[in-house]
Amino acid sequence: MIGRLQGRVGYLAEDHVLIDVGGVGYVVFVSDRTRRTMPGRGEAVSLYTDLLVREDLLQLFGFATLTEKEWHRLLMSVQGIGAKASLAILGALGADGVARAIALGDATAIRAAPGVGPKIAQRVVNELKEKAPALMALGASEPVVDPDPPMPAGTTPPVEADAPVPAQGDANAQAEAMSALTNLGYAPAEASRAVAQAAATETGTAALIRAALRTLAPQG
């Protein structure tokens, strides 16, 4: 299994690139979004890769981030979604956009990808809505830094009057939901407020993420 390539760009084509690694050129298929982030010919590049093996075919698919690669693998688990459709979805929405669409049950957003019809889009949402939160909560490659300074030893942090205290059994789900939201780019403070509001009516990681995203979505 080839999981990552690091070398120099040999050439850029419409749907693939060639990466020169120590004199060996690897043809790597990429999404439109990843293609736009690629450096110019001869410049250094690094891509996470996924190898598709068939009886008469070997194809490498490349991704700018590990999260994008893992979404590709998850999308490919849906019947009717092949590598081409997966790259189309990721190219249209990006990894964060796919996460939001699935968490909110937004099949219309998935349909924005070229070649993805309404039935397939709905199947993606239905089949991945329970699997997606685990991937969303994996975290980015860099840890989220708490902007608040540490409290002095022996000091109890203040609790907002309207902030519900999570039950022990649901604390892990709320922590996972907050991690997923911060990985999507929301500030820790707004993620915490949204999850706390969602926890008033929802339990479980997937339900908390969906409800919190509805709270954070732009109104109007």
UniProtKB/TrEMBL annotation:
Residues 73-92, 108-127 form the Helix-hairpin-helix DNA-binding motif class domain. One of its GO terms (molecular function) is four-way junction DNA binding. Residues 1-64 are annotated as: Domain I. One of its GO terms (biological process) is DNA recombination. It is found in: Cytoplasm. Keywords: Cytoplasm, DNA damage, DNA recombination, DNA repair, DNA-binding. Its main location: cytoplasm. The keyword rRNA processing does not apply. One of its GO terms (cellular component) is cytoplasm. Residues 143-171 are annotated as: Disordered. Residues 171-220 are annotated as: Domain III. Has three domains with a flexible linker between the domains II and III and assumes an 'L' shape. Domain III is highly mobile and contacts RuvB. HAMAP family: DNA_HJ_migration_RuvA. Homotetramer. Forms an RuvA(8)-RuvB(12)-Holliday junction (HJ) complex. HJ DNA is sandwiched between 2 RuvA tetramers; dsDNA enters through RuvA and exits via RuvB. An RuvB hexamer assembles on each DNA strand where it exits the tetramer. Each RuvB hexamer is contacted by two RuvA subunits (via domain III) on 2 adjacent RuvB subunits; this complex drives branch migration. In the full resolvosome a probable DNA-RuvA(4)-RuvB(12)-RuvC(2) complex forms which resolves the HJ. Belongs to the RuvA family. The RuvA-RuvB-RuvC complex processes Holliday junction (HJ) DNA during genetic recombination and DNA repair, while the RuvA-RuvB complex plays an important role in the rescue of blocked DNA replication forks via replication fork reversal (RFR). RuvA specifically binds to HJ cruciform DNA, conferring on it an open structure. The RuvB hexamer acts as an ATP-dependent pump, pulling dsDNA into and through the RuvAB complex. HJ branch migration allows RuvC to scan DNA until it finds its consensus sequence, where it cleaves and resolves the cruciform DNA. This is Holliday junction branch migration complex subunit RuvA. It comes from Palleronia sediminis. The gene is ruvA.
